[in-house]
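---------- Forwarded message ----------

FYI, see the Thiamine-binding protein domain-containing protein record below. Original note from H. follows.
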Amino acid sequence: MNTSVAIQILPMLEDDQKVVAVVDKAIEYIQSTGVSYDVGAFETTIEGDYDQLMEIVKNITKIAAEAGAPQVMTYVKIDYKSKGKVLGIHEKTDKYQH
């Protein structure tokens, strides 16, 4: 695992329930890819191979649009290590889980 990516999509919809439905579709897409992921309140973190994660990043906005958002803002943070592995989700957060 040489990459960790945080993805936040913001469907530009006025109805909160529609926003949640679009985000749910985006998360379902991430789940379908088989990558390790963690859903947070504001973003979802995925980890794995760089090329596979970049394919997810490439597709996620279109998935949200197809789910009903006429406009989507997408924010992405990438932690990439060319040699070795990046710190994983659990290494970063387990001590804070309750």
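H. also flagged this: The CA atoms of residues 90 and 97 lie 10 Å apart.
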